[in-house]
Amino acid sequence: MSALAHAVFLRAAARVADLPPPGPPEVALAGRSNVGKSSAINALAGRRSLARTSKTPGRTQTINFYDLGDAGRLVDLPGYGYARVPQSMRAQWRELVNGYLHAPRPLAGVVVLMDARHPMTPLDLQLIGWLGEQRLAVLLAKADKLSRGEQQQVLGDVRRTLGREDVTLFSSVTRQGVEECRDLLEAWLQAGRENKKPPVKGI
For residue 56, is it within any domain? Predict the structure, then answer.
């Protein structure tokens, strides 16, 4: 059974001081507000309501940690880029995420989710630039909203633009890409436990 199937909610951190002590390796998920990170976590864990989902963008205002036992942790970073969120709150979120990424944590990798219908926005590209090239993968979420031909077109476009092959079509509805992503995260966590590569650089 996948380690992700054992995921349980651990803690929500609204401030850097609230982060749990470093423990097993962590894999973080990042993306624009309402891109589907919570739905992706539920799909990867094979659960319906492990992570709370909402149609209201900007709902996740904390860093949410999910414990996988000795295997590691999943980390849901706050969504970014929602215009209706006050500037002061956006600045607070960015400070929180910066604090997490700069902290001496066992970060094994970061998954960036983009909306397959509207990928590679300036904010998406900025985030990828912040994170660098180490242990980074891209999921084109909500791929079920596109036809098969459109999926292949956007997949090729994103891979060419980013110059990387670790881009995957993903849908929490049809489960497209779920197994591939699950295998990748488990490989990252195993490598993190074995200290095979340095952690991802922070912003």
Answer: yes
